Amino acid sequence: MSVDIETQASTDPAAEDSSARRAPAVLARFAAPIGLQVLAFVVAIAVSLLLVAALGYDVGAVLAAVVDGAFGSAHAVSSSLTQAAPLVLTATAVWLAYQVGLFNVGGDGQLQVGGLAALVVALALGDLPGVLTIAVAVVAAVLGGAAWAAVAGLLRAYRGANEVISTIMLNFVAATAISLLIAGPLRSPSAKYTPRTDRVAADAQLGDAVPGIPLTFLVALALGVVTVVAVRRTSIGLRLRTIGLNREAATHAGLRVQAMQWQAFAVSGGLAGLAGGLVILGYRYYIAPGWVPAWGLLGIVIAFLALESPGLIPLWAVVLGIIGAAGPAIKGAASVPDAITTVMQGLPVVVVFLVGALARSGPGRRLHAALSRKPE
């Protein structure tokens, strides 16, 4: 006698009950990190406003300046997303390196090298059509950042050099080298006082895809999504995560651990280098002293916040981009120092760390047990 297994399973009360129990569990696992991010954001904003009030500044003026500076016009929205674009890529770069058990703190140096490579190529190819110049400059930015990161990756893979120390050192090398270049061979003839390079030609500049939405943000968002999907949903990504979870087991499984680690690190640097290229082509257009904020460090902040939920990287990038874009408006409207903006960008990490520490403490575990206890 044949048995319809699908029909039996669909009408089995035990199966239905099991599915009913699994659904809230899946939702809980999804909602937990989201809830923590929301809590971090709310607490960070509240603490920032309390700090502003304690220092004697007008809280209402600060809030109005944030809203106006970030959303007051299409240009303001575009500025916020322009600030968010490099953050998406630098955070994704840190997240990718972490998947193979490495910590990429060299995003700032890789971003600057990528920006320099894009600028040099764009200036050298100024006579070519703008689209071709942009394409070659973008490739140069990726290769520049990847090559800079590969130095630390190779040292880590084959010589055991700590990648944190080597990437920090390479950050300073990149910044110093670029300072010397813009004061020397790359200095624009029109720069009489402050050294700077020539500007990228107008037809090689990236504008808005639509009013208020810069093309650089869409490119960064697309590559961020592709990177996360590739790591989470492909066989190569599975190998990378295996190395990050257990290097010894990955070696016994026949994976080329050293080669895959430095190659993943190089790809991570390529993402950061692309961020620098997009900054040059879509935002700054030239290099001068202080031409980039600490986007690499902020990328580490975002990667930490979204470590278990990389889909939140663009959201945090936009939040911190809004704060960064509204900084000048806050300073102009309420005379608030730039340090307040920095505090607002860093507080979410502190909140997430404190909440995590509380959850691991004795009272936190008892509270979790009490909330998880089934009613009798």
Number of helices: 15
- Largest β-sheet summary: 2 strands, antiparallel
Proportion of strand residues = under 5%
Strand order of the largest sheet: 1-2
Taking all Cα atoms into account, the compactness measure Rg is: 24 Å
Order of helices and strands: HHHHHHHEEHHHHHHHH
Helix content: over 70%
Structure description:
The chain has a domain at about 100-225 and about 250-290. It has helices spanning about 5-10, 15-55, 60-70, 75-100, 105-125, 130-160, 165-185, 215-235, 235-245, 245-250, 255-285, 295-305, 315-335, 340-360, 360-370; strands at about 210, 215. It is mostly helical and about 375 residues long. The protein is about 75% helix and about 0% strand. Strands 1-2 form a two-stranded antiparallel ribbon. Residues about 1-10 and about 20-30 have low confidence and may be disordered. A hairpin with a 2-residue loop joins β1 (about 210) and β2 (about 215). The radius of gyration is 24 Å and the shape is globular. The longest helix is centred in the N-terminal third of the chain and has 42 residues, at about 15-55. It contains 15 helices and 2 strands. One of its GO terms (cellular component) is plasma membrane. It is found in: Cell membrane. It is a multi-pass membrane protein. This is Nucleoside ABC transporter membrane protein. Pfam families: BPD_transp_2 (PF02653).
In a few lines, what is going on in this structure?
This protein is mostly helical and 376 residues long. 77% of the residues lie in helices and 1% in strands. Strand 1 (208-210) and strand 2 form a beta hairpin.
